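Quick question: what would this complex look like in 3D?
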Amino acid sequence: MHDNLYTPRPEHKFSFGLWTVGNRGRDPFGDAVRPPVKPNDLVRLIAEVGAWGVNLHDNDLVPIDASAIDRDRIVREFKNTCANQGVVTSMVSANLFFDPIFRDGAFTSNDPAVRAYALQKTLRAMDLGAELGAKTYVIWGGREGTETDACRRPDEAIARLRDAINYVCEYNLANKYGYRIALEAKPNEPRGDTYFPTTGAYLGFIDSLAHADMVGVNPEVAHEHMAGLNITHAVAQAWEAGKLFHIDLNDQVIGRYDQDFRFASANPKAAFFLVKFLEDVGYDNPRHFDAHAYRTEDNEGVKDFARGCMRNYLVLKEKALCWNADAEIQEILTEISSARPGVPTVEKFRESHAKELLGYRFDRDQIGMRRLPYERLDQLTIDILLGVRGRRSTVNSG
Ligand code: GLT
Ligand code: MN
Ligand code: MN
């Protein structure tokens, strides 16, 4: 492949989880279709496709029952492979959902022993990540939810999760790990309902934590779409609050199960506005593709999947530049927000301003008649997305 606009580079901070490129195509109705690939070979695959980072859960790398000696050997070899391949371990997490012990939750379980085990597993995963150099720690409460609310009061679950995260933050400080902790929401699946179903719910919760500054969010495109929400609005709220620590890019048709499709493959328009937002504001944290190849693919197809995720991001990034540079689009944007001479605007409260505002007579009819050519604006966007408008890439895009 030639070096061009769509070639992934380290500064894009593209990463893949071991569980994403290592996904074997199992689903609730069918068994694995791809042979297992060892973590070190997955790192090689990540390097081969040109990504920058790898993410993992503790047990993606170290089997849950590994001895201390095996654990140390596995970690040593993994570190070597990462160093040799030039791949960074950007994020770690603990798997608190696969083992049957977590069948009714981890941090929110009614059983104090389950809660304590979940915490022990988390502290060990933090040790592991620190050894690998990770700076982001994700908490996805996959099993923190219910099928029936008869089992516990939801406010108790919320308080338990708060206690656990406060503990994790203290451990982070005590060990000087310097993690930024990112909470990931999902409305349902595998549970009937998950506590903290949306990114917005977590953003409201973070302020109640003892170390709120250490905790942010990891919004996932598919999870907000599952809830029927607009991912870009969720991401914007997180960004504006200084809480966009990480992002899970993938795709999903609204209303379906958790599809985890290749980024921008289902709804490229929504993906465009998301990429445009991230690029406009200068988001500089990892861009993680939490997705997997179609079950119909073999291991070569997994590379097509991974390359497609990054390519779609970079194509949409270029489209965002075209959009920003488009004179007609910019004219419309200027026109729809221009101030009107003599009409008061909203400023910081001052008594004199409030007095002036209260006394002013707004011409509702005239103000309400302003032209809002959003059909044209959206069509210009669609024209750019469909490739019939805007700068055409002059470099080889192969
Ligand atoms: C799991 C889930 C993802 C989370 C991962 C982090 S694990 O694959 O579907 O959305 O980001 O725990
Ligand atoms: Mn998902
Ligand atoms: Mn995710």
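Answer marked as accepted. Residues 299-325 form the longest helix (27 residues).
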